[in-house]
Amino acid sequence: MSKLLYINACFTDDSRTKVLADAVLKKWDGEIEEVKLNDGSIRALTKDQLSKRMQLQETSDFSDEMFKYAKQFASADAIVIAAPYWDMSFPAALKDYIEQVNVCGITFDMNTEGVVTPKCNADRMVYITTAGGKNADLQYGMDYLKALAREFFGITKFNTFKAEGLDIEGADVDSILSETLKRIEKFSFITKTVVPGEENYIVESKDLTKMYGNHAANDKVSLHLREGSIYGLIGRNGAGKSTFMRLLLGMTPINEGEISVFGKTGNEMAKVRNRIGFIIENPTFYNYMSAYQNLKYRAELIGLKDPDSAIKEALQKVGLMNKMKDKVKSFSMGQKQLLGIANAIMGNPELLVLDEPTNGLDPIKIVEIRKMLLDMNANGTTILISSHILGEMGKLCSCYGFILDGKLIKEVTEEEIESEAIDVEEFFVEMAKGGQNG
Asked: Taking residues 362-387, what's their average pLDDT?
């Protein structure tokens, strides 16, 4: 029987973190082995204790109690960690616990060059929190766990469920908790096996064509966007990427063919557009209004139940909370772009359509936005994105569509990338050599 290792750092059984953890654990069909960190059994290690364990490791004496926990990690098929905070008060013990279970020879091997080979069975780690403490500490904790999961456990699937906004003054705690539980409803430990002919496409177009005079900006484009994927639409300037996104969003009329979104076509698509967040080319706002006022205008248009919390959550995610009351006319190009992203992600939409979302952002912000999008995708958001930064797309996307002179030349699935060892950048460069746009 498959086994899940549950690291329980919840203060009480009725805490918000425990409510979220219970919702995740219900998704597991198998044995659950629980380690409690809230009963004092695990404490931060002293230097003497750490030195002793290093000596034991060198002699391959694994009789120490901590090595028992290491074997729990090594034998688990999945790991769930529930901790309400990430600061110096409580999770210091959790941090020390995780660091010390990474025992060479049990959870990983390391050669003389320092290259790590993971030995764990687990293929997924889930981190659950209620976003207490400082935001920077929380981000540090998430980054730390992701790096640990990847390097020492070999885990590439990392999900986070954060009831964000609980530390914001005036936030509606019940609404935020409810929205987080809705995201958990879509979560599954089992990776879906896609059977040909039974794919669930959130967006699907058939021979989609858009003419501007005698020029076909989109020429019989048939695109397939699977639920849960991050689809990278790649093409040179003028290839037709933005046109496709405008057609999807109903911003411009279709000449020929059709497109469906959430199974709706034609006029019926209007009924599902409140489930879509988007940014197309350069975002525009009312310069005389504040960042908060601009977002509130759209929040009310799409009918968000708790617009105040949704706005503050979105601004916090992109790092604009301190600019919330400032008028947009004072914003730099990069800040306007971040506000455009906040506008798109507000309310945690089911589908995100992002046209060059990192335009004008510095390298640090690009990395932060990438992490945010990966987290949103792990928590159920499907993403269609275009970008000229192919290296960044490679770190983000699970599948691709290559568009040239208005034609969708090829779609590449995640399975094809792995089985055929396709180099996305090389493929695009070779394809683009024959095109006219530039």
From this structure: 87
290's enclosing H/E stretch is none
For the range 66-72, what are the long-range contacts, defined as Cβ-Cβ under 8 Å and sequence gap of 24 or more? 66/100, 66/101, 66/103, 67/103, 67/106, 69/35, 69/97, 69/100, 69/101, 70/100, 70/101, 70/102, 70/103, 70/106, 70/107, 71/106, 72/5, 72/33, 72/35, 72/101
E-strand spans in 236-340? 256-261, 264-265, 276-279
Residue 96 near residue 66, CB atoms below 8 Å: no
Place of tokens 């530039």: 438
> How many H helices and E strands in the chain?
14, 18
Dist CA 296 CA 276 (whole Å) = 16
Helices 135-153 and 91-101 meet at what angle, rounded to 10?
10
Instruction: Tell whether the model's pLDDT for residue 91 goes beyond 80.
Output: no
Q: Is the pTM of this model over 0.90?
A: no
Within 13 Å of residue 343, how many CA atoms lie on the same side as its CB? 26
Burial pattern 348-379, b for ≥16 Cβ within 10 A else e, equals: bbbbbbbbbbbbebeeebbebbbbbbbbbbbb
Read off φ and ψ for residue 239, nearest 5 degrees: -75, -25
**Is it the case that residue 197 has pLDDT exceeding 90?**
no
Total length of the chain: 438
One DSSP character per residue, 199-232 reads --EEEEEEEEEEEETTEEEEEEE--EEETT-EEE
Structural tokens at position 208: 């989609």
pLDDT, tens digit (0-9, with 9 covering 90-100), for 115-149? 788 888 888 889 888 765 555 666 666 777 777 78
For the four alpha carbons of 297, 302, 308 and 313, in that order, the dihedral sign comes to negative
Q: Is the pLDDT of residue 292 over 90?
A: yes
Which secondary structure element, helix H or strand E, spans residue 355, and what is its range?
A: strand 351-355
- The answer on pLDDT for 166 being more than 60 is no
